């Protein structure tokens, strides 16, 4: 079984509180990737409570975002239209729940052939989940499609890709350009 994980393609990261032009630019490519993917597609959502500013993350990044129950927390409309299941809400950068689900499927439902990650932000949640999945499933190829990711800045996106490459994450760039 091949798996595609769509990381945090939420309104607040695309065009909301922490949105960027780069994040907006990848939405059509991520949609195309989802539509063309032959396998299991899972989605994550960064999820915070109203106490966000009192958390460690909130003190480090004092911009309220992805508060559960708000518009910013929801998947952006183009991605939401393709989502057939319930996204995995995650209160931290990396999702231990996602890793546990995929490890269990690998063990009990047959081998996971590969896991491809796309989404936001390359330098925070994509890298955290790629490394976490690598730790849970060290023999499963973990792939990041760089053309379907965006970082906080273009430079931090590039640095995250280089870091993942060194950690034996396969970096693909499937942009049509």
UniProtKB/TrEMBL annotation:
<dbReference type="Pfam" id="PF00857">
    <property type="entry name" value="Isochorismatase"/>
</dbReference>
<dbReference type="InterPro" id="IPR036380">
    <property type="entry name" value="Isochorismatase-like_sf"/>
</dbReference>
<dbReference type="InterPro" id="IPR000868">
    <property type="entry name" value="Isochorismatase-like_dom"/>
</dbReference>
<protein>
    <submittedName>
        <fullName>Cysteine hydrolase</fullName>
    </submittedName>
</protein>
<dbReference type="InterPro" id="IPR050272">
    <property type="entry name" value="Isochorismatase-like_hydrls"/>
</dbReference>
<feature type="domain" description="Isochorismatase-like">
    <location>
        <begin position="3"/>
        <end position="171"/>
    </location>
</feature>
<keyword id="KW-0378">Hydrolase</keyword>
<comment type="similarity">
    <text>Belongs to the isochorismatase family.</text>
</comment>
<dbReference type="GO" id="GO:0016787">
    <property type="term" value="F:hydrolase activity"/>
</dbReference>
């Amino acid at each position: 079984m091949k798996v595609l994980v769509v990381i945090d393609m939420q309104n607040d990261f695309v065009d909301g509180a922490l949105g960027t032009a780069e994040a907006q630019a990848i939405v059509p490519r991520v949609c195309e990737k989802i539509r063309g993917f032959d396998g299991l597609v899972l989605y994550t959502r960064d999820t915070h409570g109203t106490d966000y500013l009192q958390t460690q993350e909130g003190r480090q990044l004092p911009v309220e975002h992805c508060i559960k129950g708000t518009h910013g927390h929801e998947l952006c409309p183009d991605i939401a239209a393709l989502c057939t299941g319930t996204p995995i809400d995650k209160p931290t950068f990396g999702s231990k729940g996602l890793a546990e689900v995929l490890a269990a499927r690998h063990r009990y439902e047959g081998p996971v052939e590969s896991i491809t990650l796309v989404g936001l932000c390359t330098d925070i949640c994509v890298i955290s989940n790629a490394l976490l999945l690598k730790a849970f499933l060290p023999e499963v190829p973990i792939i990041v499609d760089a053309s379907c990711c965006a970082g906080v800045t273009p430079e931090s996106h590039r640095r995250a890709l280089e870091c993942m490459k060194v950690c034996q994450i396969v970096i693909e760039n499937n942009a049509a350009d």
